[in-house]
Write a structure and sequence with these properties.
Blueprint lengths: L1 H8 L1 E4 L5 H17 L2 E5 L3 E8 L8 H18 L3 E21 L7 E9 L6 E4 L5 E4 L6 E4 L6 E3 L7 E11 L3 H9 L12 H6 L8 H11 L5
Antiparallel strand pairs: 1-8, 2-3, 3-4, 4-9, 4-10, 5-8, 5-10, 6-7, 6-9
Helix pairs in contact: 2-3
Length: 230
C-alpha cells in the first residue's frame, strides 16, 4: 500500500519516523561546526539567496548521519520493498537571507530523495512537491518527520514564505537497486561515484561521461539486468 501510494503521488510523508535523539546528534554536529567556524555562507543553487554550508563534506559520513541513513534504508526495504543504495547526503542552514528554492528535479543519484528538518527557530518551512497531476502539494514537516520523493521525477521547490532566521534542513539520497538506473549505478560504483554521476542521465550521455565499456563488461552488465543488449 505504501509503495503504491509513493508511486501514485511521487512522494510519501512519514511522521515521527526519526527518533529525536538521532535528530539531536545531527543537530550537535551542525552546531559544533558552526561554533568552530567550519562553515561557509554563499549562494547555494537551487536555493534563492544565501545559505550556510559545512566546509568539510566528510562530516556527512560520520556516525550520526550513517545511523539515520541506515534507518531510512531499512525502512524503505521493510515497508516498501525497495532495495535502496545510499548515494550521498547533505544539508544546509537556511537563514532570513534564504528566500526560496527554484522548482527543479534532482540529479541522477537522487532517484529516491528524503528531506527532513533538523531544527528551526519559528515554524516548519514547507516544501512543495508536484504530484502526477501537475499539482504542487504543500508538505510541512516537523522535527522527526520525513518526506520521501522521486527526486529525479517530481518537480519540487520552496516559496519565499519562511518565518525562520535559522533552519537546518538535511537530505538523504538513494537509488533503487531494482531499477534500471539503480542496477547501472550499483554495477559501476567502485569508490569513484562522483566522476560517473554529474547530472541527469541525458546530460551524462550528451557529455560522453559514461564509463568506457569493454565487450566483456557489456556482456556481464547485460546478464546482470536481464537484457540481451545494453
Amino acid at each position: 500500500m505504501l509503495y503504491e501510494q509513493f508511486e501514485k503521488d511521487d512522494f510519501l510523508i512519514q511522521c515521527g519516523l526519526i527518533p529525536k535523539q538521532l535528530i539531536k546528534d545531527i543537530y550537535d554536529v551542525y552546531m559544533d561546526c558552526i561554533d568552530k567556524g567550519e562553515t561557509r555562507e554563499g549562494d547555494s543553487p537551487p536555493m534563492f539567496g544565501t545559505a550556510i554550508e559545512l566546509t568539510d563534506e566528510k562530516i556527512f559520513s560520520t556516525t550520526p548521519f550513517k545511523k539515520v541513513e541506515s534507518l531510512l534504508r531499512n525502512w524503505l526495504q521493510e515497508n516498501m520493498q525497495i532495495r535502496a543504495i545510499p548515494t550521498y547526503n547533505m544539508g544546509r542552514v537556511y537563514t532570513k537571507d534564504t528566500t526560496g528554492m527554484l522548482k527543479h528535479k534532482d540529479r541522477v543519484p537522487c532517484e529516491i530523495s528524503v528531506t527532513l528538518p533538523i531544527a528551526y527557530d519559528n515554524a516548519p518551512w514547507q516544501i512543495y512537491i508536484e504530484d502526477r497531476e501537475g499539482i504542487d502539494r504543500a508538505v510541512k514537516l516537523h522535527v522527526g518527520d520525513v518526506a520521501f520523493y522521486h527526486g529525479c521525477r517530481a518537480n519540487h521547490h520552496r516559496r519565499n514564505n519562511s518565518l525562520n532566521k535559522f533552519h537546518i534542513q538535511h537530505y538523504f539520497h538513494f537509488v533503487d537497486l531494482d531499477s534500471e538506473l539503480g542496477s547501472f549505478y550499483n554495477y559501476f560504483r567502485q569508490g569513484n561515484d562522483s566522476k560517473l554521476w554529474k547530472g541527469t542521465l541525458e546530460r551524462i550521455i550528451k557529455n560522453n561521461d559514461l564509463p568506457i565499456l569493454s565487450d566483456e563488461d557489456k556482456i556481464r552488465y547485460s546478464k546482470l539486468i536481464g537484457e540481451d543488449n545494453v
